[in-house]
Structures are given as structure tokens and as C-alpha cells.
Amino acid sequence: MSETSSGSRTLEVSLGSRSYPIHIGPGLLGQPDALAPWLAGRQVMIVTNEVVAPLYLERCRASLPEGVEVRELVLPDGEATKTLASVERIWDALLEAGFNRRCTLVALGGGVIGDMVGFAAACYQRGVAFIQVPTTLLSQVDSSVGGKTGVNHPLGKNMIGAFWQPRAVLIDTETLASLPPRELSAGLAEVIKYGLIRDVDFLAWLEREMAALRDLAPEAMARAIERSCAIKAEIVAEDETEQGVRALLNLGHTFGHAIEAHQGYGVWLHGEAVGAGMLMAAELSARLGWLGAAEVARARAIIEAAGLPLAAPADMSVEDFLARMRLDKKNIDSRLRLVLLRSLGDACVHDETPLELLETLIETFPRVD
Amino acid sequence: MSETSSGSRTLEVSLGSRSYPIHIGPGLLGQPDALAPWLAGRQVMIVTNEVVAPLYLERCRASLPEGVEVRELVLPDGEATKTLASVERIWDALLEAGFNRRCTLVALGGGVIGDMVGFAAACYQRGVAFIQVPTTLLSQVDSSVGGKTGVNHPLGKNMIGAFWQPRAVLIDTETLASLPPRELSAGLAEVIKYGLIRDVDFLAWLEREMAALRDLAPEAMARAIERSCAIKAEIVAEDETEQGVRALLNLGHTFGHAIEAHQGYGVWLHGEAVGAGMLMAAELSARLGWLGAAEVARARAIIEAAGLPLAAPADMSVEDFLARMRLDKKNIDSRLRLVLLRSLGDACVHDETPLELLETLIETFPRVD
């Protein structure tokens, strides 16, 4: 972590020849040439959505040097658009513009834009450069770090994709001012996750600062983003393609993905589903004898304080959950693998949960009224 | 290169942790457990096409060990099916079967099947294992070696894809017995290419053995495949992602892709377009003063002896060629890069061909009657 006089900070994600920097700070977007060092050539396409474009497209364009050929593509907003068809629109636009393999894609927006643009970059002419400019808390602390790209399939979330690293990530913390409160809460789910899986001190800090974070207090927010990115960068550097430790980042996600898929993508926000899913994982960990009641209560309290749901959708049966969870990418052969908590701040991957215990947990977990 | 008592040979493609073997020999397909060492887990999907399935699907299945879950997917035949829609059919089938990230795809067929299945494997759950079982000469000497995968787009060939290496390549030379003569010639185009770009001794050997190769003489064919794979493996090991020397493998392809795209994929076979394209590259090299008339005559003679076209489609204008060539993946910014011949057996990438020279070459190159 290095700090400059302007208050911006730079983290490095260490991945050998694919290493890249994460710049975090207020007002980064719009600084002339902020994007210049990371361009592969002179062809640039900014891809964003209808909500973000009126807010930040102009500033993003202003961060590009003179003399580059800039195209813009504005897609619809929302998780429901995270489909192969949207990625095809990006490929069509690139080909219609005659862009070659030294072009650069800029993903301006939240996680949906980042995942789609990253995947489009991964597969356009077998791989071109891209830069992440995440504008939501969720994408700033999660999806813009680590190189996971992809789209949803009717039968499962993120089922089609690639590992493809950006050239750089530019996090302008001022963009959070335009974020709806519900999306802020969804982002905080992933921030809480880092505390739960790896850093109990950070969790304690979050318990103290949660009100400030929901008020967008600049110092607290910058620190939360930095620590989240640092933990994620550390884990990704250890395990780029999710053979081992990286799976811990999926705490709450196996349950959460089942909720999202069952409800139809975009009905629950990803972070909302992960919030409820983390609580399910904590309660299952308690049933395995790993967490005590006080620890589960702490997990529940911080999830609640972030404004996240503490219950699953009313109409989801045990079988609705299990059918979706059996498709999870972490599973090996037909064995269900779950990320659970040995204690607060210490997660593990577990594939020996008795099915009965899991069924009882899902059965008895509260449902939304 | 190692040789076993059964007459089969094994080459290694050296790519660090992504290294893999190429096994070449008669009757490899159908040997029990021939595929066993390369499976990632217990879920296997064999993807093939309607022409290959009746010939080799049974033998391929017999090469898998007992106890694995085997699914089969039979796609239509032909370059025209090399689309994202076909790859989506593979993804749909994998998800419907509940296959996880430790599954293995087996590509049984020609280059179209190999490219599509490789791309499907590259992007299914962000990457799963696959094995190439090429059954055409073209795919045995070219597309199954080197990890280029992908599909065509209406605006360009192989525009969408990924670099993704197979776990192994199994070349059963007996499968060539069922190959139509036109496809055999198309495969010989790539064999000739290796001689032209890298090995003038191999070119001379091909001049002597061309009749035997067109008669499928087993010894000559085995040697031609081995030498071709060895040259390609050597070049790929030097430059996996085509930053430099690998571009030489595109001799004749910039012209050839323009022909294929203009005619509509599948009208000319890939190898036929490359055959004419190599002659165009040789003649352009002569106009640059690099090749003499005798060398161009040798190139023309071997291309003709292989049964390949010596003329471009009748209706293709200079602009038809140039418009397609400007989209070529080798281009940097707007600069046209061509693979040309300094001499027979010595290719180079050249981006300073005067446009006028190129236009005259295309203008005066013979057209099909």
C-alpha cells in the first residue's frame, strides 16, 4: 500500500506477468491521462450502462489522452442483462468499429458491467486489454479485483466465463455518492465477508464503523475499500484460478447463488443474497459445533446493521436450494462443498456436511414474511 | 520424439505447467483406457459431428475407462456451424447434465469441432479440461496443436475465442482412410506451409512424396504429420499467445481468411483458401524482390500437386480482399501485417508492403474460371 499526497492509494495484485495496480481515491476519474498508462494501443471502447453513462461517461472520456480513437457502448442496466447476448453486442460493436487485438476496453460501472466487459475482452480475438473503473461499492471491493469474468446462464450464475486480469483498476470513491442505499448495503455484504473469512479485527472495526459507512463517511469508506481489496488481492495472489484458498471468497455465495437463480437474476441484489447466505453459513457452522451462539449473534447483528436480509425468500423449499447448490462450481464430482466458519475470521471449505444437517438448516432458516 | 513398439510416437508441446503430449499412431482410438490418463474427473462429454459420429464415436467411447459418466453431443458438420450458437449448445448440454468444473470434454472430429469444443471448455465454469481427438489431416497437423480455440463471427473468422490448451492430443492415423480427397488436399496445405515457413528440407521431401501422401501411404503420412506437429509445437512453445514468431503460422491465412469470409464460411475449405493464399504470399514476396521466379514456381507446383486451387474466387475485387484483410488479428493499430517469404523455408512478418504493390498483386492474381 502506498499513499500519495492527493489522498489516493495504490495496491498491487501480485500475479507475475499479469500483476496490476488498484488505485483508490476521491476524484480519480476525470484526471487527465488517468487511464493513459494502461492503454494497449490507440483504440479504446468504453462500455457502460444507461444509469452510469449520464453520471460518469463524460469524466471517463476526459481521463483518456488526446489522439486515441474512442468508442462508447451503453448497455441496459441490471443483473438480468448479464447474458451472453449482451457480450455479443460488445463483440459486434468492436468488429463493426474494426478494432484489432491491441484495443483496450474500459468497464465503467458495477459488477455486471465489469464481468461482461472482462469476458468480452478475454475472448475478443482471443484476448485484449481491459481496465476496470468500478462505480459501485460491490464492484470496487469484489468483482473488479481478481480476474473473474463471465455471464449468467438460465441454469446457473456465472457459468460461462474466463479468468482474465485487467491492466489496472481505478476506484474513484466519489462515485459512491450516487449509489442507492440498497446497493450500498449489498456492497457492504462483501466487505463484511472479508472480516468473517480472514480478519476478525477488521470485523470488529466494521461493527464500530457501520453507521459511518452507511453515511458514506469518506475516511471510513476509503479504509473499508482498501482493506477489502487488500484481503482479496492477497487471496487471489495465492490462488489465481481457484484451486484452493480462493474458494473462501465464496462464503455465503453457494446459498446466495441459489437464491438469486431461484428468484430470477436481479430480483434480489447479489449482495443481499450473499448477506442471507452468510448467515445461513454461520448457522450451519454452529450446527457443526464450530461457532457458538454469541458468534452467530455477532454475524447476524453486523449483517442486519448493514441493512441486509436475515431471511430467505418465502417460496424457496429445501429442494429449491439443494437443486441449485448441486450445480455450484466448487463441487468436485457430485460432492457438495461449502465455505463455512471455524470461527469468526477463519473460514474453511468443507465437503463433509451431513445432508440431513444441511436440510434441517435450510428447513428451519427464517423466510421473508 | 519417442517411438514405441506399436509404431506410435509421442511429441511433447512444452508450455510449462500447460505442457501436453501429442500421441500419433495407427489404431490409437479404441485402445482401452487410451483417454484415461487425461481425464480431470469422472464426468466426460464427447462432442462430435454427424459425419464423424457413425465412424468413430463407438471407438472413442471404448477408449474411456469403466465407471465414468459419459455423455455424447452430436453437432451438425461444417465450417458454417462454427458459431457461438453451436458452442452454446455444448454449454447447455453440460449444464443440463449437471457437469462440474472437473469434467472433461473430448473433441472428436476435425478443426471445427476442435476449435468449438476447446472454446466451450475454455469458458465453461471459467475453464475445464479437454482432449483433442482430431480425425482430419488439417486438424491433426494444425488446429489440434497450440491451444487456439474459437468460433467465427459474421464479420470475421475466429474473431471470438481463447487460448486454451488441451490435456492431450490423440492422433489415430487410421481415421484418414475415411477422409474425402478434397479434405485431404486441404490438410496438405498446412503441411506444405510448415515446409515453406521453416524447413526447406521438409519441403523438398514433400515434393518427392506428394503422390504417396495423396494415396495415404502410411509411412509417408505418419512422417508428414509428425514433422508438421513438431514444427508447430516448437513455434507454439516459443510464443504461446502469438506475440511474435507464432504469427508465421499464418502464412497464406490473411488472404485465405478474406476468401473464406467473402465466400461465406464453408464454401471454400479452409485449406483450399490457405493454398491460394500461400501462392498470393509467395507472389507478393517475389514482387518485393525476396523470392526468385524459380522459387515461386516451386511453391506453385507443390500447391498444385496437393490438389489445391491456384486462383482466387472469380467475383472477389481488390477492395473485397482489402476490407477483410484490414480486420486481421495480426494488424497493429491500422497497419496491415502480412506473413511473407524471405526465401523458401524462411518466413517473416512484414508491415511495410506498399499498398500499391499489394493492390497490383491482388488485381493481377488469377481468378477461378
TrEMBL record, chains A, B:
Sequence intervals crossing the membrane: none
GO molecular function annotation: 3-dehydroquinate synthase activity
Cofactor(s) the record lists: NAD(+); Co(2+); Zn(2+)
EC number, as in UniProt: 4.2.3.4
Subcellular location: Cytoplasm
Domain 3-dehydroquinate synthase C-terminal: 187-331
Catalytic activity: 7-phospho-2-dehydro-3-deoxy-D-arabino-heptonate = 3-dehydroquinate + phosphate
NCBIfam families attached to this UniProt entry: aroB
Name of the protein in its database record: 3-dehydroquinate synthase
Lineage, opening ranks: Bacteria, Pseudomonadati, Pseudomonadota, Gammaproteobacteria, Oceanospirillales
Underlying gene: aroB
